[in-house]
Specification:
elongated; Immunoglobulin-like; four-stranded antiparallel β-sheet; mainly beta; 16 strands; 228 residues
Length: 228
């Protein structure tokens, strides 16, 4: 009996040699073949990944993790999912040319008795560098019964074509009291968030998190005193 399962897979990024430049995320494909009763099998991949190698189930604390070892000696890459999540992501456990591969995608798995074929399509890049982030200005002013948090920040990705997503959280007295999120091409961003701090709060803290399309992320923060 043949059963077709659809699952998400970790994206493996482009295989590039020394000195190659990082580009925008691109599609790639690979296929795993193995037995459900064994912990290892083989894989083949389209360029620019290595042509073939072995795939091994190395387990996971709360999910699934597999390791691909290239037969040409160029390195290994891992993909994993956790907690029943539908999306698999490239882990930081790669070696050789694959140490910086990042991305995500989907796999279609066909099972025939004990054998399986897993065909994967993903979008990824040879890039593990998060965008830069800098808070340039932070000011608080009264806005009726609320406080207006005026913030200017700069964010830039190492790949000019990549959009950068941001999320700003405003914290006071140990809890979040406001937030704002968006996506821009990079550069300078100015936002205003209206909040009502608890009376016991003496300072506000803003936390800025920025990420590229591959979820390489960086966080920075700054605090300012409240004047009740």
């Amino acid at each position: 009996m043949r059963t077709t399962l659809v699952m998400a897979a970790l994206a493996i990024a482009l295989l590039v040699g020394p000195g190659a430049t990082v580009g925008a995320p691109s599609p790639m494909t690979w296929t795993d073949v193995g037995s459900r009763s064994a912990s290892s099998g083989t894989f083949t991949a389209a360029a620019p990944l290595c042509p073939s190698g072995t795939v091994t189930d190395i387990g996971g604390l709360v999910g699934i993790k597999t390791r691909h070892t290239c037969a040409d000696g160029s390195g290994t890459f891992e993909f994993e999912t956790s907690g029943g999540a539908s999306v698999w992501r490239f882990s930081a456990g790669g070696t050789g040319r694959y140490a910086a591969l990042r991305g995500s995608g989907t796999c279609h798995v066909t099972v025939n008795d004990d054998a399986f074929i897993r065909t994967c399509e993903a979008v990824a890049d040879f890039d593990n560098t998060p965008p830069t982030a800098r808070i340039e200005r932070l000011r608080i002013s009264r806005a009726g019964r609320a406080e207006a948090v005026q913030m200017t920040f700069n964010m830039t990705d190492n790949v000019a074509a990549n959009p950068v997503s941001y999320r700003v959280a405003v914290l006071a007295a140990g809890r979040r009291i406001g937030s704002k999120a968006g996506t821009r091409a990079g550069g300078t961003v100015a936002i205003v968030i209206k909040v009502r701090p608890p009376k016991r709060a003496r300072r506000l803290t803003v936390v800025l998190r920025v990420a590229d399309p591959l979820e390489n992320a960086r966080s920075v923060s700054r605090s300012v005193r409240l004047h009740h």
